[in-house]
Amino acid sequence: MKTIVLFSGGLDSTTALYVARSEGREPICLTIHYGQLHEREITSAKKIAVSLRLEHWIIPLSLPWGGSALTDSEIALPKGRSEKEISKEIPVTYVPARNSIFLSLAASLAETKEADSIYFGANALDYSGYPDCRPAFLEAFEELIARGTKAGSEGKKIRIIAPLLYLSKAEIVRLGYELKVPFEWTWSCYEGRETPCGECDSCILRAKGFREAGIEDPLMQTMRRA
Predict the structure, then answer these.
(1) What is the spatial distance between Cα 51 and Cα 46, in angstroms, rounded to a whole number?
(2) Which of 50, 139, 197, 222 is 20 to 30 A from 186 via CA?
């Protein structure tokens, strides 16, 4: 059965994509360019989708009011924080209502393509400060889709599947390793340099995951050889 995969090109969304494939789904990838300050992740998403020969939609979207360090150059990215500091509060990298917007677009595509589900790489452990990555949010949004779409009114439920929701970053890395995710093609850094900065929250959590999984990050190997 067809499924929509919200696909950024990052570690989590790529692993979610490979989970969908391993479960016999026919993935349609949806990548959203929402005005983030760099396009490095989108480059990764394109490369991975092409390699798998998947249908891939890239949707441009403007959020000109900013409100996040990912969309507003006036807001500084947090750097060098400890793992405890990262999980304390909603960070400035939170993009206001982003996942509500993304899931709405995914629901529209799902209805059009007659897909029965949306795979979403949300994680409630490493990013517990993000309110739109929590189980209650996903349950509520699934109900919203059921009540606010033609498919829902006809009893054709579109499920939101978040296979990584309760996994630690190390568990996500191990799962991706088992599924042969091309980690070297994924991108997690909040900056769009040629190499990961190694200091932003996302880089720190990625490094933690690979370290605790006992697996070397092939992206970093590739960067060292370049």
Answers:
(1) 9
(2) 139
Interatomic CA distance for residues 34 and 220, integer angstroms = 27
Lookup result for tokens 């989708």: 49
* Count of Cβ atoms closer than 10 Å to residue 87 Cβ: 16
* pLDDT tens by residue, 159-200: 999 999 999 999 999 999 999 999 999 999 999 888 899 999
Q: Are 55 and 28 in contact (CB under 8 A)?
A: yes
The pLDDT of 139-151, averaged and rounded, is: 96
Helix (H, G, I), strand (E, B) or coil at 118: strand
Instruction: Please name the helix (run of DSSP H) or strand (run of DSSP E) that holds residue 186, with its range, or none.
Output: none
Look up the CATH number of domain 2-225.
3.40.50.620
**How much is the pLDDT for 127?**
58
**Token pair listed for 114:** 């007659």
State the DSSP code for 21. Answer: H
pTM of this prediction? 0.94
Provide the pairing of β-strand 2-6 with 117-119: parallel
Distances (CA, A) of 90 to 130, 137, 166, 208: 6, 15, 18, 20
Smallest CA-to-CA distance from 150 within 178, 112, 186, 187 is with 112
Give me the residue spans of the domains in the chain: 2-225
Closest by CA position to 11, among listed 161, 191, 219, 226 = 219
Give the C-alpha separation, 156 to 111, whole Å.
9
